[in-house]
Specification:
Elements: H1 4-17, H2 19-32, E1 44-47, E2 51-55, E3 59-66, E4 74-76, E5 78-82, E6 89-91, E7 96-98, E8 104-111, E9 121-127, E10 134-135, E11 140-146
Parallel strand pairs: 1-10, 2-11
Antiparallel strand pairs: 1-3, 3-8, 4-7, 5-9, 6-8, 9-11
């Protein structure tokens, strides 16, 4: 495998022997380098748990974590499927932003207290393909909102 050090030595030697030849070979040699050597490995984004429960009228913090710090912002889109009326909760808008040099961010779900007696609401929150990261496990969280009436 070619490294930048090997290429530098080669080009220095080539330039002293054939100045124009060094320029012609430069493109070929750079293409032969291991392109992954300068590209950082992407972190993995996932939930910290698969299930949470909250009482109606309270808020839940769904934590999305990275397995390592990354030098750039990461955007993690997510989708929600639910048996709840959309008026029963307020949720952080998608995508979730994990700031550079941080390892966590929170999707906040605030359930709305009402006077209706009802069955528990279940929200499934699924992480979608992030920017500057890859999906880890778990990528889905079930949030159950227990009625307080």
């Amino acid at each position: 495998m070619y490294t930048l050090s090997n290429i530098s030595t080669f080009l220095t030697n080539l330039r002293t022997q054939i100045p124009f030849g060094g320029l012609l070979v430069l493109g070929f040699m750079l293409a032969a380098c291991d392109s992954n050597s300068d590209t950082p490995e992407l972190p993995t984004a996932s939930f910290t748990t698969t299930e949470q429960e909250v009482s109606e009228g309270a808020s839940a913090e769904l934590i999305v974590q990275l397995n390592e710090v990354f030098s750039e912002d990461i955007l993690v889109p997510f989708t929600i499927t639910s048996n709840a009326n959309p008026d029963d909760y307020v949720i952080t808008p998608s995508p979730l932003k994990i700031s550079a040099d941080s390892t966590t961010a929170v999707i906040e779900v605030s359930s709305i207290d009402d006077d209706l007696t009802e069955e528990p609401d279940t929200l499934f929150v699924s992480l979608d393909e992030p920017t500057n990261a890859v999906l880890g496990d778990p990528l889905m969280l079930r949030l159950t909102v227990i009625d307080n009436d």
